Amino acid sequence: MQCPDCHHENLLGVNQCEACGLNIYDLLMDDVETKQLARFISDELELDKPSSSQPLLLYLPSLQTPIAIARRPSLAMGRKDPESTLLVDIDLTRFDAQALGVSRQHARLEANQMLPVLLDLNSYNGTFINGQQLTPNEPYELKSGDEIRLGSLIASLYFK
Q: For the structural domain made of 32-158, what CATH number should be given?
């Protein structure tokens, strides 16, 4: 993203301009793809709230802009399957999830904590943070910029 002040071209996903230090996280919010999760009541995004209430930004290689994930407890990550009644909150189906080995309910993201937590739900192809495989059903704290891999689907997660 290009900094509006100094026009430096920053790396994807940085929260502050690498050249002048301007906070560009809030500017990213203008470009994010937002989707309302069906089971939650709609609410307005308030950028003046504490950092822990601002959405997580999930970057996938096939997207130009990140997906905003509301800071909610217990979000199931995976893919939809027309033959199953299992529901997911973060549906990765359109990112070729099945071919990349993403389970129907692959991982659980506890996004309502200051440092979000990721748990593998005993997925068939595993969940990884920065290349390290997670032990199923054990919580792992995430840091902004962590690479998350569900099966072979790679994404990066940013937050402040």
A: 2.60.200.20
7-47 pLDDT, tens digit per residue, is 888 777 677 888 988 887 776 666 665 544 444 433 444 44
Closest CA to 124 of 153, 95, 159, 84: 153
Bridging pattern class, strands 117-120 and 127-129: unpaired
Tell me, letter by letter, the H, E, C secondary structure of the chain: CECCCCCCECCCCCCECCCCCCECHHHHCCCCECCCCCCCCCCCCCCCCCHHHCCEEEECCCCCCCEEECCCCCEEEECCCCCCCCCCCEECHHHCCCCCCCCCEEEEEECCCCCCEEEECCCCCCEEECCEECCCCCCEECCCCEEEEECCEEEEEECC
Q: Read off the pLDDT of residues 98-136 as tens digits, 9 standing for 90 and up.
A: 999 999 999 999 999 889 999 999 999 999 999 999 999
Instruction: Break the chain into its structural domains and give their ranges.
Output: 1-31, 32-158
Contact 125, 152 (CB under 8 A): yes
pTM to 2 decimals?
A: 0.70
